[in-house]
Amino acid sequence: MNDLFDAIEPRDPSREVMADGAILLRGSALSFEADILSALQAIVGQAPFRHMTTPGGYVMSVAMTNCGAAGWITDRTGYRYDRIDPESGQPWPAMPDCFLGLAIAAAAEAGYPHFVPDACLINRYEPGARLSLHQDKNERDFANPIVSVSLGLPATFQFGGLKRNDPVRKFALRHGDIAVWGGRSRLCYHGVPELKEGEHEKMGRMRINLTFRSAL
Ligand code: SIN
Ligand code: FE2
Q1: I want to staple 93 with a disulfide (CB 3.0 to 4.6 A). Which of 46, 98, 129, 174 is the partner?
Q2: pLDDT tens readout for residues 53-71
């Protein structure tokens, strides 16, 4: 049966369906790699990574910064998007063209041709850092997908359902992979368990994740 199906429509090993509306594009960021890494360096020079505090008073193990018109932040008063970096009092660095191009292309490839992000959250995981299961729900309009680019050390992506207790599937995320979720999956719970120790040839002892959203 599978053989017959494959004969009609061969499976594309670079695309993996995670759930209805959620897809993993393997290696899709690699052709933009050099531009992304140099743009990233410039952003981090202007808006350094920092460990933010959750409303509950917990200091996040993942260090974060942002670029684009709006940046995602958390402090004791809550989670939200803000046009201003609270550390500098200045607007977040602009979204580089290569980031925008990558996010738009990945969304289109995943079946979301109208996506234009205005926010990019940049997460830095060092070994031991983790992001517990959560929904991305601080954006104004859930009609737009999330585009999430993985760089550096490999991680496990937990992708669940619309309820916190729904079963979770696990996917390996490697350097250059892009996960896109929208439509019926837009509010699915997801998370990243503790990053394992390692050294990536280009990124060193860390994983960077770029999460593109249409937030405002
Ligand atoms: C996130 O949910 O914001 C980040 C997911 C990831 O690091 O892959
Ligand atoms: Fe998220």
Answers
A1: 46
A2: 999 999 999 999 999 999 9
Dist CA 138 CA 187 (whole Å):
11
Predicted structure pTM score: 0.95
- Report which ligand 1 atom has the smallest distance to the Cα of 190: 2
Q: Write the CATH number for 155.
A: 2.60.120.590
CA dihedral 63, 168, 120, 26 (to 10 degrees): 110
- Alpha carbon 190 to its chain's center: 11
How far is the centre of ligand 2, averaged over its atoms, from the C-alpha of 187 (Å)?
9
Total structural domains within the chain = 1
**Residues 123/180, Cβ–Cβ less than 8 Å:** no
Kindly state the tokens that stand for 35. Answer: 């531009």
131 lines ligand 1 (CB under 6 A): yes
* Residue ranges making up the domain that contains 29: 17-169+180-213
**Tens-place pLDDT, residues 125-181:** 999 999 999 999 999 999 999 999 999 999 999 999 999 999 999 999 999 999 999
Q: Nearest ligand to the C-alpha of residue 136?
A: 2
Residues with CB under 5 A from ligand 2 (ion): 136
Specify the long-range contacts of residues 84-88, CB closer than 8 Å, at least 24 apart: 85/47, 87/47, 87/48, 87/50, 88/46, 88/47
